[in-house]
């Protein structure tokens, strides 16, 4: 039986050992809650331990609610993570889980934004009303997403002691993996200007980016910022903070960047994941092909 103590221990492990971001942990918590809610509707004899009958019924119940395959896949991944943790910690008697597999989600191409739209989004920050230090903070955060390819959670995890930024920045990414990313001079200058203008005390071991009340700046605040800028500029609905990370990769590739180098910059384990992020329009591909293929120069 899954108890609140088991659940709390697993969530703490995700945060402290796996170093997952708050949004990921919240999603995994919701995923496990969905599974336990389903268990509560089943006869006790079926739910004494994880088994294929219950698992298949749970999958069917999610499909019946028209949940996306990506959501179902994530929920199965969360359940697998919890059960493996519970087994290692001797919290539950967990059988072999090799059969616990999610339906394969479709591989969709993340939507990016054009160079002009990315530049317009950044420039629009300074045309808004409000305190100069808030504008400088918002610009610095978005510059780290677009200029260094950071995830929101990675940018907001920076501490005051990490600045001033040098030529390289060491980032703890997903799965507790470290990577080094180069820092554009413009991004480093944006962070410096924010620090100079910020009227609040920034302790060295505390978050670099803070709210107007002095607490850590949250991911939702950055999402709301981009949402409002998107509406002001009449940009497509897919323009989100994460789209700036997509744009970082896509624009690098479009200007001749190496795919494997971009993979390292993004912190992707699989090159296939990077390929999804780095879509380039067909016209550009044709242009590169015609200009670089050795046979293209022959008449």
Tell me about this structure:
Forms a cyclic heterotetrameric complex composed of two molecules of XerC and two molecules of XerD. The chain folds into two domains: 4-88, DNA polymerase, domain 1 (Orthogonal Bundle), CATH 1.10.150; 115-287, Intergrase catalytic core (hpI Integrase, Chain A). The chain is 56% helix and 3% strand. The chain has helices spanning 4-16, 22-39, 44-47, 52-64, 69-88, 115-124, 132-148, 152-156, 185-197, 219-233, 241-254, 259-266, 271-277, 282-292, and strands at residues 168-172, 178-182. Strand 1 and strand 2 form a beta hairpin. Helix 1 packs antiparallel against helix 2 (22-39), helix 7 runs antiparallel to helix 9 (185-197) and helix 12 (259-266) packs across helix 13. It is globular.
């Amino acid at each position: 039986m899954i108890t609140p103590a088991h659940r709390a221990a697993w969530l703490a492990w995700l945060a402290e050992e796996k170093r997952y971001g708050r949004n990921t942990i919240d999603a995994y918590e919701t995923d496990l809650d969905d599974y336990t809610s389903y268990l509560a509707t089943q006869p006790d004899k079926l739910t004494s331990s994880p088994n294929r009958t219950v698992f298949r019924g749970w999958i069917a119940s999610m499909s019946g609610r028209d949940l996306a395959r990506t959501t179902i896949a994530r929920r199965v991944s969360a359940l697998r993570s919890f059960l493996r943790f519970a087994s290692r910690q001797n919290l539950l008697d967990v059988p072999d889980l090799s059969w616990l597999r999610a339906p394969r989600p479709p591989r969709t191409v993340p939507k990016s934004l054009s160079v002009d739209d990315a530049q317009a989004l950044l420039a629009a920050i300074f045309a808004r009303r409000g305190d100069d230090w808030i504008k400088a903070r918002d610009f610095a955060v978005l510059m780290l997403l677009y200029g260094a390819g950071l995830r929101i959670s990675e940018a907001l995890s920076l501490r005051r002691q990490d600045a001033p930024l040098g030529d390289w920045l060491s980032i703890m990414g997903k799965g507790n993996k470290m990577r080094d990313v180069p820092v554009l001079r413009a991004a480093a200058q944006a962070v410096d200007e924010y620090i100079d203008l910020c009227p609040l005390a920034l302790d060295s071991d505390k978050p670099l980016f803070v709210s107007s009340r002095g607490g850590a700046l949250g991911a939702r605040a950055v999402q709301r910022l981009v949402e409002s800028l998107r509406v002001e500029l009449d940009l497509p609905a897919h323009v989100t903070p994460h789209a700036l990370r997509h744009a970082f990769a896509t624009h690098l590739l479009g200007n001749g960047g190496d795919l494997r180098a971009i993979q390292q910059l993004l912190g992707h384990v699989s090159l296939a994941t990077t390929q999804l992020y780095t879509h380039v329009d067909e016209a550009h591909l044709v242009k590169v092909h015609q200009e670089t293929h050795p046979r293209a120069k022959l008449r």
